Amino acid sequence: MPNPMSNKEPPPSAEQSTASTIMPDEDSRTPKSTSPTSWYKPGIISKPSKKSHSRWLSPIRHWHRLVRLDLLVMASCLIIGGILAKWTSTFRQSDTLWPMWRDPAERVWRGPLEISHPELHSVLDSMECAIVVLLVPLALVLLMQTFVKSFWDANAAILGLLKALSAMTVIQVVLKQYIIRLRPFFLTKCRPIPDVLDAKFRSLDGNPSRLPLFVDISVCESSRAELLSSMQSFPSGHTGSAFAVGIFLALYLNAKLKAFADCGTPFWKMMIVMAPVMGAVIIAAGLVIDKVRAESI
Question: What span, in angstroms and rounded, lies between the C-alpha atoms of 135 and 137?
Fold first, then answer.
């Protein structure tokens, strides 16, 4: 009768027991590390795939696909406006006429009062106006995101502000080249030459009844480049940009606050909505008060 214990494996020898005690497993030989790259082991874990790299790039690419045409059109508008402002800046300068009268008592020439004001320092220059018109609306849009908490809402609002500014920039540059409106301090910049005016007056036989004498920039001591800014009173770039941004911002705030809804709304919401338009009015009025712009067309 076979022995049932004969099929069992023989017990390990002393040397094998000692080796298994001394040699640890492969996993236990690998030292544990807390470094950020400790998860990567060559030959054990593969390198990150392209999908994991592009996971955070896909939202940016999606946003770029949505706005790239608008960004291209806005950049084109600014480039076109810059080209028109440079290459057509002296367009119709020589066609502009204004009256001059000769004062026989003082023997001096005088022009209309509305273009004879001294040149005053503007309270809000071009750089300061750009900061106010651009940064203040951006701050308000970002402040609204503390309540709205939407990336796409902020994206639409910021792009809307940039579109309004780009469109108004091109419009006011084009109109300035065709609508020549003298600033209130034009004659201060022009500095009419009395001898030239006297010569033109003598060509009319010196008859006072032929006055006023209509003249152009040929009687000015200043150059065409110096006179360029003083002949572009309308439309105002400051006022146009302020109203473009102010009206857009008022519509944006009304969409969030529902100030003009068909139900009873608090009065403070209406005042907040109207604040951007009021700011644009203040900017326009400041230019008129400082005699930088004319009161009318």
Answer: 6
